[in-house]
Specification:
heterodimer, A: alpha/beta, eight-stranded parallel β-sheet, four-stranded antiparallel β-sheet, 32% helix, B: 257 residues, six-stranded antiparallel β-barrel, 15 strands, 16% helix
Chain lengths: 314, 257
């Protein structure tokens, strides 16, 4: 374990700032075949709703240059099973869990948050107000600042652990959204969720995804994520877990420069199941190459003034 | 155990129109448990295409640590793959999924293997393994047209083989189901397009039947929930199976096709 990578965030003592993003790692079982999950900084588990959900019809994925569209539709076994099966199984690993909380109406979010935040290995919640693939809830909470603030406040009231709110990029002004959830009591932000997009079948002329539209992820969205983190990190005082197309140690540093305090890796897990441990392993030598002692020195370099940075390089 | 390995290409050739046969060397050959399993190939280091390509294993040569795949050149990924030559390295994840159960038939019994188009390849290794167990194997292979036909000779060496083409340009005209209705068998194994699987399940679901499904995949290991199918017709029942990790081979009735 490298002490050059540890990061402390509300509720989270991370041995390194790398974690798989929600929805791209299930509940960890599949990837535990490949490596020891204790190597990870944290794990963002798949979105959990009160009731079990099947999700959308297939096809649920479509590819595009440097990215993929997905419309899974929050498939999950439901709150009860996540608490009784998945979280206890994950407790064999020395890794904090961030539970992604989803729902259709306010009461759903509150119910999931109240119960799941009691699990001993859940150290933080990620409030999913930004899933683009469900008809109700999700995105509606993620596009109207006042609604997002309200929901955050309600969830904060019942949660026993810090609450991070996952922001949608599908808004006119993401800074306004970030400020609203900060005012609602959010302890941190995770951003960005996927961008709404679509693909059409050349032969039939119809959408490839059964859901018609899906969420775009992968390297294609990295510049959008960086721009939004750059803007939001200067406007709020709560930390940001950055995500959106990260697939290398270099990408991680770029997200820190933009203003992230930790990062999540999503789609890249599908391309290379070993991507998270590989990045963790590569980071120290990249820090050497760039002349940093600790990864936190990279945070916000894109906008911090020289005098703020001076002590880091002394 | 699933491995990620850089595999050396031994050979690649076009065996029918846009149909390629690719043989690679891999240590994980010894992890292959059953015919019908597949691998997930990253065809290029770039991000275009981004995802891996799931391709079924068509035959295994444990002695030489090699295995062969047969795929159709169709999109960007398989076109790039078709341009690779001997000696080049391919990033392959495998073996994945659960294959055809060969122990469902006993010596002296007859197995009917029914393939459609690019669903034919995994049946070849299955055929080899069944023959080795002393099982009589009958093949019914359907293709669109004469130029798409492949492996007729290879299957013939293992047993009776019927070829059908939709346009009648080779073998008998029509669909595989037109041929099956006249055949006797103890167990049916099939892989091919969904309409074909549906027709076979409808006609022979009461018999011992195993179907290999195809679905667009993300991760290939069961984490992303892209390739799920329902396992109950009750709309309130959310039970499901993942084609990549629970399948791709299912017993008839296990999933809704």
């Amino acid at each position: 374990m490298s002490s050059r990578l540890n990061i402390d965030l509300p509720g989270l003592t991370l041995k390194n700032p790398i974690m798989p993003a929600s929805g791209c790692f299930g509940f960890g079982r599949e990837y535990s075949q490949f490596y020891d999950l204790s190597k990870l900084g944290a794990i963002m588990i798949k979105a959990t709703t009160v009731e079990p959900r099947f999700g959308n019809p297939t096809p649920r994925v479509a590819e595009t240059s440097a990215g993929m569209l997905n419309a899974i539709g929050l498939q999950n076994p439901g709150l009860e099973k996540v608490i009784s099966n998945e979280l206890p199984w994950l407790s064999q690993f020395d890794v904090p869990i961030i539970a992604n909380v989803a729902g259709s109406v306010e009461e759903d979010y509150v119910e999931v948050a109240r119960s799941i935040s009691k699990a001993p290995n859940v150290h933080a919640l990620e409030l999913n107000i930004s899933c683009p693939n469900v008809k109700t809830g999700g995105i509606a909470f993620g596009t109207i600042p006042e609604v997002a603030r309200q929901l955050t406040r309600k969830v904060k009231e019942v949660s026993e652990v810090p609450v991070y709110v996952k922001l949608s990029p599908n808004v006119t002004n993401i800074v306004e959204m970030a400020k609203a959830v900060e005012a609602g009591g959010a302890d941190g932000l995770t951003m960005i969720n996927t961008l709404v997009g679509m693909r059409l079948d050349l032969k039939t002329g119809k959408p490839i995804l059964a859901n018609i539209t899906g969420g775009l992820s992968g390297p294609a969205i990295k510049p959008v994520a960086l721009r939004m983190i750059y803007e939001v990190s200067q406007a709020v005082s709560i930390p940001i877990i950055g995500m959106g197309g990260i697939e290398s140690a270099e990408d991680v540093i770029e997200f820190f420069y933009a203003g992230a305090s930790a990062v999540a890796v999503g789609t890249a897990n599908f391309v290379d199941p070993f991507v998270c441990p590989s990045i963790i392993e590569e980071l120290p030598s990249l820090l050497d190459q760039l002349g940093y002692e600790h990864i936190s020195e990279c945070r916000g370099r894109s906008w911090k003034k020289d005098e703020q940075l001076a002590y880091h390089r002394a | 155990m699933i491995k990620k390995e850089l595999c050396k290409i031994i050979s690649q050739k076009e065996i029918a129109e846009d149909i390629f046969q690719l043989t690679v060397e891999a240590d994980f050959v010894h992890e292959i448990k059953a015919p019908g399993q597949f691998v997930h190939i990253r065809v290029d280091k770039s991000f275009d295409p981004l995802l891996r390509r799931p391709i079924s294993i068509s035959s295994v040569d444990s002695m030489n640590s090699q295995f062969t795949m047969i795929y159709r050149k169709e999109g960007k990924g398989t076109t790039l793959l078709s341009e690779k030559g001997p000696g080049m390295l391919l990033d392959i994840l495998g073996p994945l999924g659960n294959g055809f159960p060969v122990n469902e038939v006993s010596e002296g019994e007859t197995a009917l293997l029914v393939g459609g188009g690019i669903g034919v390849p995994p049946l070849y290794e299955l055929s080899k393994q069944l023959i080795a167990k002393g099982i009589k194997v009958v093949h019914v292979l359907g293709f669109q047209t004469e130029s798409a036909v492949f492996y007729e000779k290879e299957f013939l060496e293992n047993g009776e083989t019927y070829i059908t083409t939709v346009d009648g340009s080779y073998g008998s005209r029509g669909f595989v189901t037109d041929v099956i209705k006249d055949l006797e068998f103890d167990c049916l194994y099939t892989c091919g397009p969904t309409p074909m699987l549906k027709a076979i399940e409808k006609g022979y679901g009461h018999k011992k039947l195993f179907l290999s499904l195809e679905e667009r995949m993300g991760c290939g290991v069961g984490a992303c929930f892209a390739c799920v199918c329902k396992s109950s017709s009750d709309s309130n029942d959310v039970s499901y199976k993942k084609v990549c990790s629970d399948g791709p081979v299912f017993r008839a009735g296990e999933v809704l096709i």
